[in-house]
Design brief:
Length: 225
């Protein structure tokens, strides 16, 4: 309710885009789904969003189960560590908003990926004392990635198509959030919840690779232009 009130009060501060006589009809510039998917780098971008949200949602949902079933934590203690994970995301989002004034979006994404990897590797250590920093680092690393990827969309694909592409990216993100925690849960029921670490590492590796592929394609496109 507090956020809604702040947003309502801040409406006059938002700059409204004035449409002049020279602007073309937006409806004529809309591309079809097939045309959007043919844009260089778009498939990589969609995969990046899918993988990121898979990591965030799967760890948030199954992290406590991992602690209880693999690391022998009590359920109430495991829940506290999941709260630490979400605290990492919240604190990280707040801080990254200020850091973004000094760092570009891609640097923030790479930094976040590195922190997630460090956090995951920290969880592999056989010490209970490393659980808290591991959970916090994964959340803190997640924090800048999603907003930075969205903010970079106009740069990657141009302002004309950015609205439609953001819609595709959000769709891909929510597919990851909806499906992949379920997929991991079924997988873990057969091979055990210790597989959570390897699952996260594999998804993170795919995300890092596809993010590099996206950046290369954008650089190639810009060089040609």
């Amino acid at each position: 309710m507090g956020l809604v009130l702040i947003l309502l009060l801040s409406l006059p501060l938002w700059v409204r885009k004035q449409k002049n006589q020279n602007d073309y009809d937006d409806s004529k510039s809309k591309l079809s789904l097939i045309q959007l998917l043919s844009i260089p780098g778009i498939k990589s971008a969609l995969t990046v969003f899918f993988c990121y949200c898979t990591i965030e949602a799967t760890f948030g949902l199954w992290g406590a189960s991992y602690l209880v079933l693999v690391r022998d934590f009590k359920a109430e203690d495991a829940a506290k560590f999941v709260a630490i994970y979400y605290a990492g995301i919240t604190i990280g989002r707040f801080i990254s908003g200020f850091v973004s004034l000094k760092m570009d979006n891609q640097t923030l994404v790479k930094l976040g990926q590195g922190l997630i990897l460090i956090g995951i590797l920290t969880l592999t250590l056989p010490f209970q004392a490393t659980i808290l920093p591991g959970f916090f680092l994964i959340g803190f690393g997640c924090a800048p990635i999603f907003p930075s990827l969205l903010h970079n969309t106009p740069y990657n694909f141009g302002e004309t198509n950015s609205e439609s592409i953001m819609g595709l990216q959000m769709a891909s993100a929510y597919i990851g959030i909806t499906i992949m925690p379920f997929v991991f849960g079924k997988l873990a029921s057969y091979i055990g919840f210790s597989s959570l670490i390897w699952f996260l590492i594999i998804i993170l590796a795919i995300k890092i690779y596809m993010n590099r592929d996206l950046n290369k394609r954008i650089l190639t496109k810009n060089a040609r232009q």
